[in-house]
Structures are given as C-alpha cells and as structure tokens.
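Quick start: load a record and inspect it. Here is Acryloyl-CoA reductase (NADH):
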Amino acid sequence: MDFSFGTEAEELRPRARAWLAQHLTGPYERAVGLGGPGSEHQEVATRRAWERELGRGGWIGTGWDLPAGTYGQQRLSLTGQVVWAEEYAALRAPGRVGHIGENLLAPTLIAYGTPEQQARHLPAIARGEELWCQGYSEPGAGSDLAAVRTTAVRDPADGLPRVTGQKIWTSLAHDADRCFVLARTEAGSRRHRGLSFLLVPMDQPGRIEVRPIRQMSGTAEFNEVFFDGAVATDVVGGEGNGWTVAMGLLALERGVSTLVQQIGFAAELERVVHAYATSAAPDPALRDELVRQWAELRTMRWNALRTLGTTGDPGAPSVAKLLWGRWHRRLGELAVAVRGAAATAGTGPWSPQAPYGAALDEEQRLFLFTRADTIYGGSDEIQRNIIAERVLGLPKEPR
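Running the structure step on this input writes:
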C-alpha cells in the first residue's frame, strides 16, 4: 500500500507548524509538554484557555462531516488531520482537554442528532468553550455496557428526562461542563433494549455529585458521578435508540485518534530508549525488548493507516485496542526496568501530600498508569469476544 500522505496534506505541514510556533507563547508556554493520560491534573486552566485559542484558529472540528466554516472550523482530509496531529505532537503542544467533545460527541451529534441539537451544542465545542465527559461505565456495567442500570424518567411537569444512578471511571468529570449519558428509559427493559443517549449539564448542585478516584499514580482524572434526578436537556437519536447511538460513538475511537495516540507513544518510547542508552550497565535483553517495541509501534501505525477511514468493520477498533493496550503496558514495565533499583525511589523531598511520600517522575507515572491499559476502554477479554463473534462468526458463549 502507498502510505504517503500526498501533496495537499504535506503542504499543510509548514502552515500548521508555523501557527503552533506563533501561538505557543506567553501563558501557553507553561503547559507545553503537560497533560495527557496519567497527567491530566497539570495546568488545567491554561489548557482550557488553549482550547479556546485552538477554536479561534479553526483547529477544532477539522474532521467533522460538515462544510468548512460551518462553525468556524477548517476542513481537513483524514491525512491532513494526521499531519496536524504530528506537528502538534512534535512541538509538544498542551495535552487536549476537549478531545471527548470534539472527537466523540460532535461526530455523534452530526450523525444522529437533530439540526436543533447540532446548532445548540456544536458551536461551543468548536470554540473550545465547553468540555464534555462520557457517562457510560457503571460499577456493575464496565466492559459489559448493555448492563447499565442508571435510569431516566420523564418529569410530567416539563417532559424532560430526570437521570438517577451512578457512573464510574468518568474521565475529567470534575472539569466537564456537560456529560453524555447512556441510561435506561424503558422500565423493565433489559440488555440493549430501552436505552437512550442523553445530554446532561454538569452544573446541577444537589443533583450531581462528582467524586475523584485516586489512582496508583496519585492523580485523579477518573471520577465516580452520582445522579439524583439530574435534568437531561436532549435525547439524541430518539428515545430507546441509545444502544445504536452509543455503538456509533465507540466506533469513532479509531483512525485519526489512534494515530494521534501513537505519536504520544513514540515520544514515550524515545525517553525510555534514551534512559537505556545512558544507563551504566545496558542489558542486551532489554535492548532486544526495546527493538521489539519500536517494531511493533511501526506495525501499529501501518495498521492504523491501512484502516484509516474504513467504516462498518466491527473488528477494527477491537484489534487496535488489543494491540496498543498490551504494547503500552509493556512500555511502562520497560520504563522502570531500564533504570533498575533507582526506579523504586521517588523524586524530590518527602511530603505527606505526595503519592508514596514523594513525587513521581514521568517514567514512574507511566508504569503505574499503564497497569490499566488492558482494562479501561473495553478489557482485552471483551475485545477478543467482539472479534470472535462479530468478525470470525464463532458461536457466542452460553449465558
């Protein structure tokens, strides 16, 4: 296959690089290289302001299936979006806090929402003004999303759904302005039936409580969210069609998003390789493992490029998740292995507020955070079931 991006996409590269270099100045310099999985607590206010800067430049929503400029956004091809992401990563621009709204909710609204819903929510996302979180998983419904028990009942007074229940592992809920929630709107329904995809404002004191979940790394970008009669302003895709909408949204977690993720992986791998190269006694076995990591990362990139823009393939997201989840977890193990015993000690002075009594460096956080890579976003076991049943046509396990 031809993996080159073509003239049009490559002509974008110097323009993207120049815009980033011009705007990553002043207050935004504080957030350069900060943010991202395991480090979402860093410079949140600065990164929120950076989202608005991206919106003013038209760099939010470049992949939306809408004419350019509909909401002030540029329109880039798939390869153009990858070029932008590569330049963004090369200059270590701040970790994005608007990913969920831009790359998950917005395309879902374009595909399933009404014109009124699109006009109500897309402009604020395109301007970088509103942040969203995802209310899918529950204590008893993690990878098995069809088991959700959160309910929503319409209030006779105004006809709006009132949401009651608990969501868990809700990324950035403590900073989000709104949440899209999968809830059961048909009493007595089971599994995939009777679910609806609801949009819920987070600013509802007394009706929504957000409790951070402290992770092994000491950070808390995940949360528990408790709904007690919280008002939902929109039902996307029609009542009872939530499963279709939810699955359509999950199918978006591939393609450009996967390639963007791999750019961050490459930077992490480079740091680990540097640590190995400068270690006092390099271990040939670890060198072989690092070579394997490099080769597998290249393979993942080629696979992502090969499937870029494909639709209707239920196995593509599962294959991608299986590949990167186990790869990233192994990288976390290598990050501490190359440093030997020194990796077990914290950095800086002892502090009772710091995790483990002392601050952690990037490699230590990488190791701790990647322990969850094969679980969150759909566990490896679930991904294998999807491939077996929906792609290979193997019989389902008896229930």
